[in-house]
Design brief:
Helix content is 35%, strand content 19%. By secondary structure, it is an alpha/beta fold. The protein has a domain at 472-612. The protein has a 16-stranded mixed beta sheet that branches. The protein has a five-stranded antiparallel beta sheet with strand order 24-21-23-22-25, with helices on both faces. A two-stranded parallel ribbon has the order 5-7. Strand 11 and strand 12 form a beta hairpin. The protein is extended and about 95 Å long. The model is unreliable at 1-15, 229-233, 436-458 and 536-540 (pLDDT under 50). InterPro entries: LRR_dom_sf (IPR032675). It is found in: Cytoplasm, Cytoskeleton, Cilium axoneme.
């Protein structure tokens, strides 16, 4: 009725191990004599069986962790008794309801899980059950949808009186969602009575399943660690749940990962009332707006006060957290460390939080002994809190970051982040050593980071205008692919067995200065100039009319350039059409083909993003020793505005 697999604590077995090596390793007193018997010409079967039994007894006597695979009660073999392993203290129950009905019907699966959980403990002496101090409950890989009802978990309290750690990774069965709080309370009440020594609990999801957890007053570690296969069932943090967590007075460690939107107020309530015994709090993927804004927070506490903070998320939410923690008296007078792996400029929602961003963050900064801002993510501006002003405030308070990401530059209507390394700026501001590629002309180490004009007398290189950045992007593409052919080496027969590869045409010249300003007019102009794409025969037959595959086209008006996809069998035709259009208008055009050398190119938006990032990085590295961080941030915003002003990607 159960498949048993034992796991000793010894290191992984050596594939080259021999009986002699094993015997000498375990230091059996009669190892040499036993080895001599086994190496005899014809050892008796009884001797071999006796040796196997001795080995099994030896291993069983040293095993501390056993994994039991409990299947549906459809086997004639009873489970081996736990007393077989006199030193086992840790047990893993892997639930495997092999019946199709149980796998497809959550109700049936829930009905079967109760007997499965109790299976290894029925008829087992109390002494063997008292040795179990750690229990893991999980579903087998093939039965990830198997759900365990709360009443089945409650029944474990009847068998394991000395359990200290309970880790649940199997999904808890909810059934009627409105009844979850009631079932959860009943489960925690049963665990509190039957497992009075329980001090560590892991749940697969939270939400209403934390209702009543305050019954476990001896709990010291609580974690919500959802299985990757069950992301959709992750719960949220409510103010009611936060109040329940605040009542766990012995709680020292709290960690959870959220998967759904939760109100900011619930998190703030929890942080304000953290138990005095708390030492570590870890919160990841806490979504606090409908737009998907999230934060991650890691706190280190001592004597009930927060000593270290690691925060990844929106500046506005950090200001709210700092304000509320300071008001509740939960911040130490001096914070040993404030680590900011990624700080995001505020969202419009948090601009209405009633907390002054500069005052709250300034007060937090004055408490910090050390600050480490690694990355600054610049979001699109909002009327209430311009992203540029927030970014400048972040640099003023926390220093120059190691990298800056333009989180939402819209390239051809697609949100593609552009990240540049700003470590040279940080080094020029005196925040750390310059990278190996730093310029030999050092900037004055005493120059203020908050200065609005470039340092070093302004005699060094200057940052290019944003339009010049796009011009450099296009120029680099033209030079890099100048020698690539437009003709494919594959035949029409090859296309029968595999579709033509996608190439990208890059064209630059005054031809594109005459394209209409509006998107509709530009689309009409392009469809009139470019040849039709490849006919989709299968789809044409399905719809009963000719259909042609559309191609992505991206117009870089500030750089007088066009990027357009085409099949490798149409590249030469595309070049001919563009050249004819330029000749008809007396305009110039320079055309190259990307992809013939590699048989593949990414879509035009990604090409522009990658090349723009490289050009911006080179410009920053060259000018960093002579420029202030403020001037560089303003330049980054100007470049982003040019990218955002480009027309959306067109399908032609």
């Amino acid at each position: 009725m159960a498949d048993i697999a034992s796991e000793p604590d010894a290191a992984a077995h050596d594939g080259n191990s021999t009986v002699a090596k094993v015997l000498r390793k375990i230091s059996v007193p009669a190892a040499e004599e036993l080895l001599a018997v086994l190496q005899g010409e014809c050892p008796a079967d009884a001797d071999a069986r006796l040796v196997c039994k001795c080995f099994r007894d030896f291993v069983d006597g040293h095993v501390t962790h056993v994994c039991l695979r409990a299947e549906s009660a459809n086997s004639s073999l009873p489970p081996p008794p736990l007393e077989r392993w006199p030193r086992v203290s840790e047990l893993t129950l892997e639930l495997n309801p092999w019946t199709r009905k149980a796998m497809k019907d959550p109700v049936q699966a829930a009905l079967e899980s109760g007997p499965l959980l109790a299976l290894p403990f029925i008829g087992v002496p109390l002494a063997a059950r008292q040795r179990i101090t750690k229990l893991h409950v999980c579903s087998s890989e093939k039965c990830k949808s198997f759900q365990v009802p709360a009443v089945a978990i409650s029944s474990l309290s009847n068998y394991l009186p000395n359990l200290r750690e309970l880790h649940l990774s199997a999904v808890l069965y909810s059934g009627d969602h409105t009844a979850v709080p009631v079932h959860a309370r009943q489960m925690y009440d049963a665990l509190a009575v039957g497992m009075p020594r329980l001090e560590a609990l892991t749940l697969p999801h939270c939400g209403d399943w934390l209702s009543g957890v305050e019954a476990l007053q001896g709990l010291r570690r609580l974690a919500v660690a959802p299985d990757e296969m069950h992301g959709s069932v992750q719960g949220h943090l409510s103010t009611t749940t936060a109040q329940a967590l605040r009542q766990l007075r012995s709680l020292e460690e709290l960690s959870f990962m959220m998967g759904r939107q939760s109100p900011p107020e619930a998190l703030l309530d929890l942080l304000e009332g953290l138990p005095a015994a708390m030492q570590h709090v870890s919160i990841k993927e806490y979504y606090f707006t409908r737009d998907g804004d999230e934060l991650s927070l890691d706190l280190v506490l001592r004597d009930g006060l927060i000593r270290e903070i690691q925060y990844d998320g929106c500046m506005g939410m950090l200001a709210l957290i700092a304000h509320r923690l300071a008001r509740a008296g939960r911040l130490a007078d001096r914070l040993q460390r404030l680590s900011l792996p990624a700080l995001h400029t505020p969202t419009p929602l948090l601009a209405q939080g009633g907390v002054d961003l500069e005052v709250a963050l300034g007060a937090l900064r004055r408490r910090c002994t050390g600050v480490d801002l690694r990355a600054l993510h610049l979001h699109r501006s909002a009327p209430q809190e311009p992203a540029l002003a927030a970014a400048l405030l972040a640099v003023h308070l926390f220093g120059v970051p190691a990298s800056v990401t333009l989180e939402q530059p819209i390239i051809g209507g697609v949100l593609l982040p552009v990240t540049v390394d700003t470590s040279l700026l940080a080094a020029a501001a005196g925040q750390g050593p310059a990278p190996a590629a730093a310029s030999s002309a050092p900037r004055d180490a005493t120059a203020a980071v908050w200065a609005g004009s470039s340092g070093g007398g302004g005699s060094g290189p200057r940052l290019p205008e944003p339009e010049a950045v796009l011009a450099e992007v296009v120029g680099g593409l033209l030079e890099a692919h100048r020698d690539e052919p437009f003709e494919t080496q594959r035949s029409a027969r090859d296309f029968y067995y595999s579709s033509p590869h996608t190439w990208t045409i890059v064209a630059h010249g005054s031809l594109f200065d005459h394209i209409p300003e509006d998107l509709a007019g530009a689309h009409t102009w392009l469809t009139g100039v470019l040849p039709r794409g490849r006919r989709n025969a299968a789809y044409s037959a399905y719809v009963g009319e000719d259909r042609y595959e559309e191609r992505r086209a991206l117009l870089l008006r500030p750089a007088s350039a066009l990027l357009v996809e085409c099949g490798e069998d149409h590249a030469a035709q595309m070049r001919k059409a563009l050249a004819a259009a330029a000749a008809a208008q007396g305009a110039a055009v320079d055309i190259v083909c990307m992809g013939s050398a590699t048989s593949f190119t990414p879509n035009p938006e990604v090409v522009v993003q990658e090349r723009t990032t490289a050009v911006m990085q080179a410009a920053l590295d060259t000018a960093a020793p002579w420029l202030s961080a403020v001037e560089c941030l303003r330049w980054l915003f100007r470049v982003r505005e040019v990218l955002k002003a480009m027309p959306d990607e067109m399908r032609v």
